[in-house]
């Protein structure tokens, strides 16, 4: 989870697996941490007999498990269900519990489309790009909602393109940005499309779009300057310099160079994190 959590209640021998962020939790405190920090990702299926059984059997919290089961069987709300968990161990403050309950009540009054949009955007913010792509595609599958608002559909496609670009899928990103621009007529989507084409080394398509969408020489130069400034940013140049130094030090023996392999491992782990389902 990235931080130490003090647990005053029993620790389970067998964890409870939370599928939407691929997380094992071993205690009520960890479960509360998940609820607090991934609030917008919690859906109705969080209320499950499986969770009630785990709390009752693995944590030996039989009274809590029975209370949760009563909410579940009585078609109670997600806000009531989560509040019981949050109040069970003292991990969250009263203000935090009120905030969480308020957000969940608000989500209950939103449509399936609105809730999916919020989840997709939260996945994007946390750089969980594969999950974001899955959610944005689900949104685009809700054709009735999209047809009502072409600009909204365009914005969703723009976000989908951004998620693809985060995984270096520049061809797919460019296609989504292009579709976004055709719908929302936002020049930011067109600029993103052309940037993705450049990163995909599709200079012929770049020229085609410049002419098709009447991008002036001045506007195109401005875009090019912006791309170059990103590629020459301090962060990018620092990483490029470090990679070049490590490769030079390796002198062709890449697999035997521990600093280089460690850096490659870190980059690989960062990419895998973005790809987690």
Automatic annotation (TrEMBL):
Native source organism of the sequence: Roseburia inulinivorans
Record's protein name: Tetratricopeptide repeat protein
């Amino acid at each position: 989870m990235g931080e130490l959590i003090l647990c005053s209640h029993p620790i389970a021998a067998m964890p409870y697996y939370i599928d939407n962020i691929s997380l094992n939790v071993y205690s009520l405190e960890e479960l509360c941490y998940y609820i607090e920090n991934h609030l917008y990702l919690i859906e109705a299926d969080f209320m499950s007999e499986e969770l009630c059984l785990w709390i009752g059997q693995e944590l030996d919290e039989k009274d809590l498990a029975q209370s949760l089961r009563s909410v579940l069987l009585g078609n109670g709300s997600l806000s009531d269900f989560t509040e019981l968990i949050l109040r069970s161990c003292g991990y969250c403050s009263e203000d935090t519990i009120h905030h969480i309950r308020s957000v969940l009540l608000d989500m209950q009054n939103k449509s399936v489309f609105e809730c999916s949009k919020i989840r997709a955007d939260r996945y994007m913010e946390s750089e969980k790009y594969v999950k974001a792509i899955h959610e944005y595609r689900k949104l685009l599958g809700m054709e009735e909602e999209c047809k009502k608002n072409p600009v909204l559909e365009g914005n969703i496609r723009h976000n989908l393109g951004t998620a693809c670009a985060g995984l270096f899928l520049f061809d797919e990103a460019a296609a989504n940005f292009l579709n976004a621009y055709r719908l929302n007529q936002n020049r930011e989507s067109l600029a993103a499309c052309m940037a993705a084409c450049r990163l995909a080394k599709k200079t012929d398509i770049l020229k085609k779009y410049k002419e098709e969408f009447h991008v002036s020489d001045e506007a195109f130069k401005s875009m090019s300057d912006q791309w170059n400034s990103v590629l020459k940013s301090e962060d990018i140049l620092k990483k490029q310099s470090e990679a070049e130094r490590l490769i030079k030090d390796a002198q062709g023996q890449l697999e035997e160079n521990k600093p280089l392999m460690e850096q490659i491992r870190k980059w690989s782990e960062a990419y895998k994190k973005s790809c987690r389902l």
